[in-house]
Design goal:
Elements (H helix, E strand, L loop, with lengths): L1 H21 L6 H20 L11 H5 L2 H32 L12 H27 L19
């Protein structure tokens, strides 16, 4: 999916350059296509391709803590993400479904289709962090180092 979206975005971009600078006839829809495909790539990729450890984090305190405290920090973070995305989910869904009355200016695509990727993203994040919270409550190591999961690591 991500490769297909990036390919569509790149082809739209190249087409726009060709029409603008070679034929001197800019196309309006290519910019809109690039924006929509970029939106979908970012949210789709964040939902399904980017692992938790790949996100940029401020983890100075986390890395200096022992395995048990790391698990507590990770659980608090997972619950905060769940609260934020879970709490905003009904409003986000309501907004996206409301946008069915609007269409994009050039391509005429209904905006609920365009923004539906955010609902998919939010649902995936809720599921991902819900599963993470369950694993952490069951005593799993937040970093995936099972030999350190029960406080037996080198930091204690």
């Amino acid at each position: 999916m991500a490769v297909g979206l990036l390919t569509a975005m790149f082809l739209s971009f190249v087409l726009q350059i060709f029409f603008r600078y070679v034929l001197n006839h800019p196309l309006g829809w290519t910019l809109e296509a690039c924006l929509m495909t970029w939106l979908w790539v970012v949210f789709w990729g964040s939902a399904f391709l980017v692992d938790d450890r790949d996100h940029v984090k401020f983890d100075m305190f986390y890395l200096s803590a022992g395995p048990r405290l790391r698990r507590v920090f990770a659980l608090i973070s997972a619950l905060a993400v769940l609260a934020g995305f879970g709490g905003s989910f009904p409003g986000s869904l309501d907004y996206v479904t409301f946008m069915k009355i609007e269409t994009s200016s050039t391509l005429g695509i209904r905006l609920d289709y365009v923004f539906s990727v955010y609902v998919i993203f939010a649902a995936a994040i809720v599921v991902r962090y819900g599963l993470r919270a369950v694993r952490l409550i069951r005593g799993r190591d937040p970093d995936g180092n099972e030999e350190h999961a029960h406080g037996l690591g080198p930091y204690e």
